[in-house]
Amino acid sequence: MTTVLLTGFEPFAGDSANPSGDAVR
């Protein structure tokens, strides 16, 4: 989970919609 938050462009838990990237935006 932390890795996804750090990257921001990787899918969240393998999900197509990546909330991390949306939050970074």
TrEMBL record:
Task: State the residue spans of region: Disordered.
Answer: 1-25
| Classification via Gene3D superfamilies | Peptidase C15, pyroglutamyl peptidase I-like
- InterPro entries associated with the record: Peptidase_C15-like_sf
This protein's source sits in the domain of life called Bacteria
Protein name listed in UniProt: Pyroglutamyl-peptidase I
Q: Which organism is it from?
A: Microbacterium ginsengisoli
